[in-house]
Amino acid sequence: MLNSRNCSVNSVVTVKTTVSSRMHNNLESAQIVMDNEFAHLNTVVEKLDWATQRMIGMQADADDTPEIIADYAWLRDDEIQALSEDLFDSIRDDSEALREVMSRCSDERWPVRIMMCFTKALIENTSLYKDNKNVIEWFDSFRDSDPDPTEP
Predict the structure, then answer these.
(1) Do residues 95 and 80 share a domain?
(2) Cβ proximity of 140 and 104 under 8 Å
(3) What is the pTM of this model?
(4) One digit per residue, pLDDT tens: the chain, 152 residues?
(5) What is the domain count for the chain?
(6) What span, in angstroms and rounded, lies between the C-alpha atoms of 138 and 131?
(7) I want to staple 88 with a disulfide (CB 3.0 to 4.6 A). Which of 5, 74, 122, 128 is the partner?
(8) 118 Cβ partners below 8 Å, 6+ apart?
């Protein structure tokens, strides 16, 4: 009986270790993908187009989420911020970036508009980058002047 129990405990430890290892590997893979999400694109326009499609997909996911799950039924500022900062990182050194981003700040789709306007703000004021207090103030100000039409 003791051997059976030891075997069982060892099996559980092995399974937990394997599952934990797989989860860690998946998280590392996800981080690598997120770090390089614009790497396969060459031009600012391609990156902006891709970010636009990604933002529209995020909005579609939020629209499909029941409102009772409030944290995911609307786009959160941190989701918009993360994609905008990744976009900014990928285009910040391109001389055409600001002009291209500005041309999209008036997009009719609110999620694209806020993403592009925040990216523009990052290009114009790099001290805003990763400054959580000022980022929160920026999003509050933007939402006051241009509220999300999908939120209650």
Answers:
(1) yes
(2) no
(3) 0.73
(4) 444 444 444 443 433 333 344 334 444 434 444 456 788 899 999 999 999 999 999 989 888 888 777 776 778 899 999 999 999 999 999 999 999 999 999 999 999 999 999 999 999 998 898 889 999 999 999 999 998 887 76
(5) 2
(6) 10
(7) 122
(8) 80, 81, 84, 138, 139, 142
- Supply the range of the domain harboring residue 81: 38-145
Residues 136 and 86 in one domain: yes
Three-class secondary structure assignment of 1-60 = CHHHHHHHHHHHHHHHHHHHHHHHHHHHHHHHHHHCCCCCCCCHHHHHHHHHHHHHHHHH
**One-letter amino acid of 143:** R
Distance CA 2, CA 8 (A): 10
Q: Does 78 fall in a domain?
A: yes
Distances (CA, A) of 140 to 19, 31, 32, 77: 41, 28, 31, 9
Six-digit token string for 61: 């996911």
Tell me which residue has tokens 């050194």.
93
Give the length of the chain: 152
Name the residue with tokens 């959160």. Answer: 76
